[in-house]
Amino acid sequence: MSSPTTTTSPPQTIDLTALPVAQLTNVKNQLTSELQHLTTSFSQLKQAQAKFRDCGNNVRDGLERGEGTPILVPLTPSLYVPGKLASTDTVLVDIGTGFYVEKTPPAAREFYSRKVEELGRNLQDLEKIVQGKQGNLNVVEDVLRQKVIAESSKGGGESSV
């Protein structure tokens, strides 16, 4: 008994001109939906990157003040309460899903810097995918347009005969 081999098959190419208008419309709608989802994801990643960048800047700039300095402590994104800077030796870093870790300011800045770089790489990858999907959508729209024009000219030519 031979063991199955795992090979990845190359992407299949479809002759768009062979598809009927209804199927082309479905492909166009699917690509549009995927493109909207990817664009939303891209925007969310950009916002997360900006948030991490701001956090790193806040650690850098906020600790230049001395202990006991009055500050505003964020409880939610829009609610702040007054407080005093207790220590500049350590900071609490939100590592996600509600977990916080105590770090030194340099370690916190390095953590946020890594996150910004990682998200930057993800954004570049996602941008390439978005561009590819946009190209595919443009091709499908062009073929669909040509088919609709061809069908309408056929219909118009037959009715005049």
TrEMBL record:
Coiled coil: 21-48, 109-136
Keyword DNA-binding in annotation: no
GO biological process, one term: RNA polymerase I assembly
Keyword Endoplasmic reticulum listed: no
InterPro entries the record matches: PFD_alpha_archaea, Prefoldin, Prefoldin_subunit_alpha
Domain of life: Eukaryota
GO molecular function ontology, one term from the record: unfolded protein binding
Parts of the chain that traverse the membrane: none
Family: Belongs to the prefoldin subunit alpha family.
Name used for this protein in its record: Prefoldin subunit 5
Source organism: Cladonia borealis
